[in-house]
Amino acid sequence: METTTLVAGAGSPAPHILVVDDDREIRELLARFLERHGLRVTAVRDAREARRALPHGHFQMIVLDLMLPGETGLDFARWLRSPASNMSHVGLVMLTAMGEETDRIIGLELGADDYMPKPFNPRELLARMRAVLRRAGDTAARASEPATRAWRFGGWTLDPTRRRLLSPDQVEVPVTGGEYDLLVALVERANRVLTRDMLLDLLRGRQAGPFDRAIDVAISRLRRKLEDDGRHAQLIKTVRGGGYVLAAEVERDG
User: Fold this and answer.
1) CA 98 to CA 104: how far, in whole Å?
2) Which residue in 43, 102, 126, 157 could disulfide with 2, CB within 3.0 to 4.6 Å?
3) β-strand partners of 96
4) Torsion (CA) 33, 35, 40, 45 in degrees, nearest 10
């Protein structure tokens, strides 16, 4: 296991990144590049080493290659996003082989926050990572505000103080960081049509490519968790040729 620790100014630790890739050259090059840009990096070669590192690293993000020996990256991502791991809050950026759209879509369905196809530009990867970390930081800052109030819509409650989604029966429904941020974007702009490009720009700071289905996959995941049938969706509606809209009245507590 290769570990490097850097501190980013004023005595506060930089975000800690776990890189999981069986290609030693990519692993080392990526670690050095991220370190030069002020991040702490632990680099491991497979899911087994990643599982050993997780309890001790206090990681803010995992950069995960899907093509791993032994336990695949998809299997590891599935475990990461399960309640058993207690890691659903950690940012997840996938590395996928060029043209492997099926794996990419499955990874997004499992709750990855973003992806990069190999070969990738390290600067673009860093920009994607920073966008995920920035969203997590913004959410944490909002959650620390004492006056933060919950949103209520269609019987559901979105609690920003604890980043929780509660069902009409007040049962907590687990959501990933990306799903939570997407739902906040929809709730804050209820009854307004948001295109895929607008949502991607709000969430990831980039425009959708011609085959980019990240938003569609995330919307499908949210609909399932909101028990909102995709074909006859009542909460998150599809606007043909336009995008998506949260079709509900939203109230704030207090």
Assistant:
1) 10
2) 43
3) 117
4) 40
